[in-house]
Amino acid sequence: MLKMTNIYKTFNANTVNEKLVLNGLSLDLNEGDFVTVIGGNGAGKSTMLNMIAGVHMPDKGSVLLDDINITNLPEYKRAKYLGRVFQDPMMGTAANMEIQENLALAFRRGKKRGLSWGITKEEKHFYVEKLRTLDLGLETRLSTKVGLLSGGQRQALTLLMATLQQPKLLLLDEHTAALDPKTANKVLALTDQIVTTNALTALMVTHNMKNAIQYGNRLIMMYEGKIIFDVAGEEKKNLHVSDLLAKFESVSGGEFANDRMILS
Amino acid sequence: MDYLIELFMAIFGATSQGLAWAILALGVYITFRILNFADLSCEGTFALGGSISAILVVSLQWNPFLSLIVATAAGMIAGSVTGFLHTKLKIPAILSGILTMIGLYSVNLRIMGKANTSLIGQSTIISIIKGFLPEAEQLGIKDSTLQTGVSLVVGLVFTLVVIIILYWYFGTETGSCIRATGNNPAMVRAQGVNTDKMTILGLVISNGFIALSGALVTQSQGYADVGMGIGSIVIGLASIVIGEVLYRKAKNFARKLLAIVIGSIVYRIIIAVVLQMGMDTNDMKLLTAIVVAIALSVPVISKNKVFINIIRFISKLALWIKSRVFVRKEGK
């Protein structure tokens, strides 16, 4: 369903800070795949997601989503196909607006927005039902400003917003990295539940190798702008963190094994 | 008694002025608070509205009400220019506004052909409405009082209409997107909204109302001047800030808008009082700038320990001086 072919991207071209971030990256996703993405800092994980979302445009290569060429489509136009949750909990929601107003914005993703009232009564019941599934007590706080919620609550809300309109593809960019371990686990479990019940296709970047093995049906490892390891199904289930570390060390000469990954 | 009447009349006039300028403040609120865009083009669009309204009435003998519509439309176009410079040409927000403002200075001179246009002897909105009313002498009041009264009612009606329009519009789907764009553009784009379009739309609406305000002010004061917009951004901000301080607890959007109108009136009353106390008119803009600077820095000052300690010291000093003075008085 998602087909990325030979993507190249260089940041700050022709300057001293020139950096080749994606180096001929190709990726094929099947319908219903829940793929976890791991890789060291600067491997190009976030850039790959931003390339799909349209934040950055590739220098070369093409991105196809369900046979629609979205390579050069502006971010806001392709948003109708995509659900996104960001690393920074502040990024996914509008802090000065109410919970229901945020949900109403997300509910209209990919639809025409006109001069009718921003939130209808029927919608509110629907939002209450949806918020109840989060089990965070938000269903009674529809008119609370999102800025008053905790980081974990905001990420859960963003997750709900991303899936309120069924996306073709859900992009999760280290969406639990900024949360404390307990909240992170809760949001991860919630993510798994939402992805499974809605049978979504999802790409989840994570720094935590255990999580990468635990969740999803497929795992890809990136290094220097390329995918160097791609496993699925049974083989993935039987992976261990030590296998992944060994794999990385063999390609990068030990460079990958930074503290953050071993500790997590 | 005479003094009281004089003061009352000054406040009456200030209220009338405050209402005409309130629409400017509401326009500034759209960009400054909702869209998070410090839009300086308002200095030019305010005078643009005034110039167009004046010249249409004087040179082309247009109906003054019709001139308001044209003025508003011209303001909207000016706003779209700022929006285009910022979103499409990626010029920083402040600079985009400044460019439009400076450009409009020449445009306004071109429109009027000279630096100012007087409406004396022409039919204005005020004179038309006054035509429906009995003569001032018959009512037993001065003609200037009737004039001010009519201006006040006109300002009130227009301000209320603008508030209703804003309240409705920012509750709609598109209006919500503009609000969200000022809050978190990345999130809005992720929800499939063209943020460039929303920024331009917000600037168009804001500058439309600012030009309308300029036209109304021109109609009630009886002249347009190419420099009438100078400092208007600061006056708008002062009104917003005063309103927000007075109605700190206003949560509802309509109340927030009303607070700004009150802020605009209070600002005019403060000015009137200060002028009555004998302050030089030329110092007005400096005073306004200082008031706005202090009011906008309150959130910072209230958190900064050094500032807090300075304020504590000053208040202790004041208490000490006060106690000294009182002791002396009692001693007498």
Structural commentary:
The complex is a heterodimer of chains A (264) and B (332). Chain A is an alpha/beta fold. Chain A has helices spanning 45-53, 75-78, 99-107, 121-134, 151-164, 181-197, 209-214, 233-237, 241-252, 259-263, and strands spanning 2-11, 19-29, 34-39, 60-65, 68-69, 82-85, 169-173, 202-205, 218-223, 226-232. In chain A, strand 9 (218-223) and strand 10 (226-232) form a beta hairpin. Chain B is mainly α and 332 residues long. Chain B contains 14 helices and 2 strands; from the N terminus they run ααααβααααααβαααα. Chain B has helices spanning 2-34, 42-58, 64-87, 93-112, 125-132, 136-139, 143-169, 173-183, 185-190, 195-221, 232-246, 253-276, 284-301, 305-331; strands spanning 116-118, 223-225. Chain B is globular, with a radius of gyration of 22 Å. The two termini of chain B are 33 Å apart. The relative contact order of chain B is 0.17. The chains are: A alpha/beta (264), B mainly alpha (332).
* Rg result of chain B: 22 Å
Strand content of chain B: under 5%
CATH superfamily of chain A: P-loop containing nucleotide triphosphate hydrolases
Q: Into how many domains do the coordinates of chain A divide?
A: 1
Average pLDDT score of chain A: 89
Strand proportion of chain A:
15-25%
- Quickly give the CATH architecture of chain B: Orthogonal Bundle
- Let me know the largest β-sheet of chain B: 2 strands, antiparallel
Strand order of the largest sheet of chain B: 1-2
Written as H for each helix and E for each strand, in order along the chain, the element string of chain B is: HHHHEHHHHHHEHHHH
Structural class of chain B: mainly alpha
CATH fold group of chain A: Rossmann fold
Number of strands of chain B: 2
Fraction in helix of chain B: over 70%
Oligomeric nature of the chains = heterodimer
Mean pLDDT of chain B: 90
CATH architecture of chain A: 3-Layer(aba) Sandwich
N-to-C span of chain B: 33 Å
Q: What is the name of the CATH class of chain B?
A: Mainly Alpha
